[in-house]
Amino acid sequence: MRMPSQKMLMNALLCSALMCTSALPQMNMKGIQRPQLRAGGSDASAVEAGNGDLVAAGPTVPAGTATVSASTINLSKNIVGAGVLALASGVAAFSASPIAIVPAMALLLFLGGVSFYTFMLIARVGQEMGTATYKDTWAKIFGSQLSIIPALTIAFKTYVGGLSYTIILGDSFASIASLVGAPTLLRNSNFWVCTLSAFVLLPLSLLRDLSSLAVGSVIGTAGTLYTALFIWLRLLDGSYAAGGAFHSAIAATAQPRFLAASAARPLLNPSAFVLVSMLSTAFLAHYNAPKYFNELAVPTDGSTKQQAFTRVCAQAFGLAALLMGSIMAGGYLTFGGASQGLILNNYATSDPLAFIARLGISASILFSYPLNFVGLREGVLGMLGLRGKAADPSVHTLSTVLLVIVMNGLALKLKNLGLVVAFGGALLGSMLVYVFPALMFIFATRKEEAALAAKGKTLAPARRNEMYANIGLVGLGLFLAAIGCSMVLKNAAKH
After folding, report:
1. Chain centroid to CA 67: how far?
2. Looking at residue 193, which CATH number applies to its domain?
3. Could you tell me if residue 446 is inside a domain?
4. What is the pTM of this model?
5. What's the structural domain count of the chain?
6. What is the pLDDT of residues 398-408, one digit of tens each?
């Protein structure tokens, strides 16, 4: 007899699979933000977008009109990225013991909490500076000459996000081809990277108006929820455990592997920094913090806008942590030390529910790829001083073609999604999530202190103490970046 919990999960799987088709005619619902991204546009959110989102957030809405519930939904979508499918491999990097999921969840919650704080910190500093974007806030504090620093980091982050997308697409379509018994050529991930790049991703990236891709928000949400439910269903029904229906259908390297912690490899060891690096970028949506604050409507219940924004952030980061934790825990508790860089690669190509998960994630990425690509292209053109020529057909076409080749070409060689996510998190996530927000707050506080001193006043002790805490946060971010990159590369060398 099937367990009641399995019945509930199966019903939920069916519901989430149907969400895509049932929601398509309703894309003009209140609260769903439709992208209006055009080449050469001035929308800063387009430049600063790109978290490798599996459930992409909508772009700008009129300032001061968004409700708390709508902002919560859109921010939670913005946070959850493609890296969520690699988190189980981050746990496997330091342990094969089932108990390892406990410290892994503790790390997720702690770093999620720090990300929550720095996200709100950016919005606070932006409000004090009277700026509406991450870039403008940085420029107001450090000067426009140094704005190249966050711009370069964000552009590199969108590059890593696009690379992750391409790796997932290549692996997913190759698995789907294997399921349907396609010829050997079609089972090769590089075939799909080249084919999709030339005939799907490049044409989508060349589009000037991406409003028609708003459907990706619904598909992405449904696909990610379905994947989480599917992973837990397979954990509970034991399909991949020894003797399970699909255990013998997967390669020996992908079969569940659990080992007790030992003196040679304790439960916590330096390789845990691989997971820490992944989690450094898992909650990354910080370049859009000022945008979400400015779009939020002033509360009518007597509370301040800052209080309402705190509720939005707490709810959104909480929902994102719940979804990430469920996928990470479900995947790791199913496969343990054998968890792959892309957890869906652990599941048998003959598993029909895994087929739907791969299809849903692939469809989501196809819609989200050009939204991420806009951020990369606009960022690169801005750094090259060609922002004003972005509307020129030759500049638009040439920059798009070259960037697709540079980004997707690397996916022909680099196949480890976990490595991409971990290295990107260590190097980029640490800067954008920990170091840059803390630096902005520290220097904004110094400016406030100088202004108060000119009036014969002193800085509030609470503000001074928070500044000291952020100095420590800068040190933490730099430490995590250095040790994270080192451990990621060390683990990559072993494999």
Report:
1. 23
2. 1.10.4160
3. no
4. 0.83
5. 1
6. 999 999 999 99
